[in-house]
TrEMBL record:
Taxonomic lineage of the native organism: Eukaryota, Metazoa, Ecdysozoa, Arthropoda, Hexapoda
Top-level enzyme category: transferase
InterPro entries attached to this UniProt entry: ATP-guanido_PTrfase, ATP-guanido_PTrfase_AS, ATP-guanido_PTrfase_cat, ATP-guanido_PTrfase_N, ATP-guanido_PTrfase_N_sf, Gln_synth/guanido_kin_cat_dom
Organism encoding this protein: Drosophila erecta
Protein name in the entry: arginine kinase
Similarity comment text for this entry: Belongs to the ATP:guanido phosphotransferase family.
Gene3D superfamilies: ATP:guanido phosphotransferase, N-terminal domain (1.10.135.10), Glutamine synthetase/guanido kinase, catalytic domain (3.30.590.10)
Keyword Nucleotide-binding listed: yes
EC numbers on record: 2.7.3.3
Keywords for this protein: ATP-binding, Kinase, Nucleotide-binding, Transferase
Entry's Gene Ontology molecular function annotations: arginine kinase activity; ATP binding; creatine kinase activity
Pfam family of the protein (one): ATP-gua_PtransN
Residues the entry annotates as binding ATP: 153-157, 216, 260, 311-315, 340-345
Length: 390
């Protein structure tokens, strides 16, 4: 039986504006890679190899690895190598360029995923194992900026995949509806400070939607990297946002991962924001079963979010350091931090505000990752103060 990649979703591979569909194919025996898909992979690989791309995909998808993996498929969903690498082949300016279409892809295409994971997560080798979940207490971390001179806001989030479902490229329209129904039912039952309202994107008033985006609560469509990976299918069906009354706890439904759990507030009290996220994760985990691998930790669509899947970030103003990009990069590398634009990856810094977060998600417990990020931001603020006085 052949994998059907006929028109439902637009993935534009270099040189060919071909309409592709990442369709779900549930066959326990696995499937075959048809000639059309193989030709698209061959063409995309050739153009990527000839490009000036600095992505981890180009670096680790050698000719040998490509030949070894190009005919493989995952047993339950028949995902191919094309599903994994389509975004990086379409976008040569990708940093990583690799996504997992379903949980099985991490093992079937391990010869590609493992070296990318090792380099991105700083030496998490294929023999390493993600530690057991250990949240600890956010109260251990003091407010990073009690006087409000540097940090505009703090956010901590994590991603979760619901067990029994593939990731975006393999979800059917019915899968999206079923997942949304499950997630909506759970978040709507939350109580106390988490009590709030679920709002589906389907039928949402455009003015309300735009305001939520501008207020940094809601995700938006149009990310070309995710679209090329197959994450925008059937949009906006199955997508939505849950927001508590205080608007400092939210849950995204079927954006990049099945679930994104987010805690946020103004200022630099990282410990308080972290504890709120932990409480939300634990509440959802009592009613939903999450997909966790013994070695890789919590499984996610993008390999950069594996392990704990935690990303702790601050919107911060460091005008003196930002005037010295080389010094800023050295400090970011030293503290294992990632610097992005105000609206996250692939965005610009607005008003001198940058988004700075932990880079590592794997090889450490949740508590250790928050501590590493906390210490890093503290170090940046100390360096900014030193630069001001010199």
């Amino acid at each position: 039986m052949l994998l059907n990649l006929k028109p439902r979703l637009g993935l534009q591979l270099p040189g060919r504006c071909t309409q592709l569909a990442i369709s779900r194919y549930a066959s326990k025996g696995g499937g075959k890679v048809d000639q059309e898909v193989l030709e698209q992979m061959e063409e995309g690989f050739k153009k990527l190899a000839e490009s000036k791309s600095k992505s981890l995909l180009k670096k680790h998808l050698t000719k040998e690895i490509f030949e070894k993996l190009k005919m493989k498929t995952t047993p339950s969903y028949n995902s191919t190598l094309l599903h994994c690498i389509s975004s990086g082949m379409c976008n040569h300016d990708s940093g990583v360029g690799l996504y997992a279409p379903d949980p099985e892809a991490y093992k079937v295409f391990a010869d590609l995923f493992d070296p990318v994971i090792e380099e991105y997560h700083k030496c998490f080798k294929k023999t390493d194992k993600q530690p057991a979940t250990s949240f600890g207490k956010g109260a251990d971390f003091e407010n990073l900026d009690p006087d409000g001179h540097f940090i505009v806001s703090t956010r901590v989030r994590c991603g979760r995949a619901v067990k029994g479902f593939p990731f975006n490229p393999c979800l059917t329209e019915n899968d999206y509806a079923e997942l949304e129904s499950k997630i909506c039912g759970v978040v709507s039952s939350l109580t106390g400070e988490y009590k709030g309202k679920y709002m589906p994107l389907t039928g949402m008033d455009k003015c309300v939607q735009q305001q939520l985006i501008e207020d940094h609560y809601l995700f938006k469509e149009g990310d070309r990297f995710l679209a090329a990976a197959g994450a925008s299918r059937y949009w906006p069906a199955g997508r939505g946002i849950f927001l508590n009354k205080a608007k400092n706890f939210l849950v995204w439904c079927n954006e990049e991962d099945h679930i994104r759990i987010i805690s946020m507030e103004k200022g630099g009290d990282l410990g308080k924001v972290y504890d709120r996220m932990v409480g939300g994760v634990e509440a959802l985990g009592k009613q939903l079963q999450f997909n966790r691998d013994e070695r890789l930790g919590f499984l996610t669509f993008c390999p950069t979010n594996l392990g704990t899947s935690i990303r702790a970030s601050v919107h911060i103003k460091l005008p003196n350091l930002m005037c010295e990009p080389e010094e800023m990069k050295k400090l970011a590398d030293k503290y294992r931090l990632q610097i992005r634009g105000t609206s996250g990856e692939h965005s610009e810094a607005k008003g001198g505000v940058h988004d700075i977060s932990n880079q590592r998600r794997m090889g450490l417990t949740e508590y250790e990752i928050i501590k590493e990020m906390h210490d890093g931001i503290k170090g940046l603020i100390e360096a900014e103060c030193k630069a001001r006085s010199s």
